[in-house]
Structures are given as structure tokens and as C-alpha cells.
Amino acid sequence: MLMTLWLGPVSLGTFRKLETDLIASQVSFQVQPRVFDERFPRLVLYINDVSASGTQWHGVFLAEAGGENGSRVTLAENAIVIAEPKQGKLELHLQGAARTNSKRSDPDRYCGHRLWTERLAIEVSGLVPTRVRQLSNPEAAAGRTSARQYSRLARGTR
Questions:
Q1: Alpha-carbon distance 82 to 25, whole Å?
Q2: Residue 77 and residue 59: Cα distance in Å, rounded?
Q3: Dist. CA 124–CA 37, nearest whole Å
Q4: What is the DSSP letter of 3?
Q5: Which residues of 18-56 are buried (b: 16+ CB within 10 A; e: fewer)?
Q6: What is the SS3 assignment for 136?
Q7: Average of per-residue pLDDT across 94-111
Q8: DSSP letter at 28?
Q9: Which among 29, 98, 88 is positioned nearest to 62, based on CA atoms?
Q10: What is the pLDDT of residue 98?
Q11: Which tens digit of pLDDT belongs to each residue from 26-70?
């Protein structure tokens, strides 16, 4: 009875949390190659090709706009992608990158420079499900009754 009423709901809740963490850690697989992706905040991402493991992107185009300082375009030959689900971001290690910046105050002028390596963090709030999932009845049962109450129920006391 203790296993059914307490251990079952706790293990089901743990399974659901693991499932959510796994989805968040695999967010780099949700980015499709050869598609302009606008799901990131103030960023447009285009990737020419993705490795089979999903951790390396080839031919990366990043356009950041809407900032008070102006816009920025970054091109990179390759990127190594590291998912950081706890922080809600993807960390990109760009290799063979070039960047151009333009200021909002003077849009006719821009500056560009070549970067051999660049580390960039992208917020992934648009890719990870943010709505809180309601607990099912078996999961909610663990929150309503403590282990001490279950042991009393098992012994037949109140």
C-alpha cells in the first residue's frame, strides 16, 4: 500500500522531471537546417547544415536586431553547440567568424571585423515549452499526503 500510494507518485513525478530536462537539453536538435528560424528573442538564425550528433552546425548566419545600439550580423563557418537548459540558453562556440555592426544613430556606416573564435549565448525561451504541466491524479497524490501519514494508514492508526 505504501508503494502504491507514495512511491508510485513520487517516481512518476521524477520521471516527468527527467523527461522535461531531456527535452530542454536536446533543444539544439529542434533547429532545422536551411530554414530562417525566428523563434529566438531579437535574433534570426540560419544554419546551412547540422551534423548527425546535432552538436555541430556548419554555415551559421545570425542577425541580431532591435537593440538600442543597432544591429549585428555574424557569419561563421562552424559552431559547436552546447545546451545549457538550467540557464535557458544555447552556448555557441563559433569558429571562422566575421561580424558587422551598424549603429542606429548612423545606419549608413558599419564596421566589420574577423573573429577566429567567438563564444555567444542564445536565449532559447521560444524553443523550450514554458507552460507548467498540470499534475495527473497519480502524481498529485504524493503532494497531498506525507510519508508519515502513509505509514499511519498502513498501520491502521490516525
A1: 9
A2: 5
A3: 12
A4: I
A5: eeeeeebeebbeebeeeeebeebeebebbbeebeeeeeb
A6: coil
A7: 85
A8: G
A9: 98
A10: 92
A11: 666 778 899 999 888 889 999 999 988 888 999 999 999 866 778
How far apart, in whole angstroms, are the C-alpha atoms of residue 86 and residue 94? 22
User: Looking at this protein, which amino acid is placed at residue 150?
Assistant: Y
Q: CB neighbours (10 Å) of residue 157?
A: 7
* Stretch 145-158: mean pLDDT: 52
Residue 110 is which amino acid?
Y
User: pLDDT tens, 107-144?
Assistant: 777 788 887 788 988 887 655 554 455 556 555 554 55
Cα 144 to Cα 4, 116, 153, 157: the distances in Å are 14, 56, 14, 18
pTM metric for this prediction: 0.64
- Report which of 39, 123, 118, 120 is spatially closest to residue 87, judged by C-alpha positions: 123
Specify whether the CB–CB gap between 23 and 129 falls below 8 A: yes
Q: What pLDDT does residue 35 have?
A: 94
**Number of other CB atoms surrounding residue 150 within 10 Å:** 19
Strands (E), the chain: 43-50, 56-67, 70-84, 89-103, 110-123
Q: Which helix (H) or strand (E) holds 16?
A: helix 8-25
Higher pLDDT, 126 or 83: 83
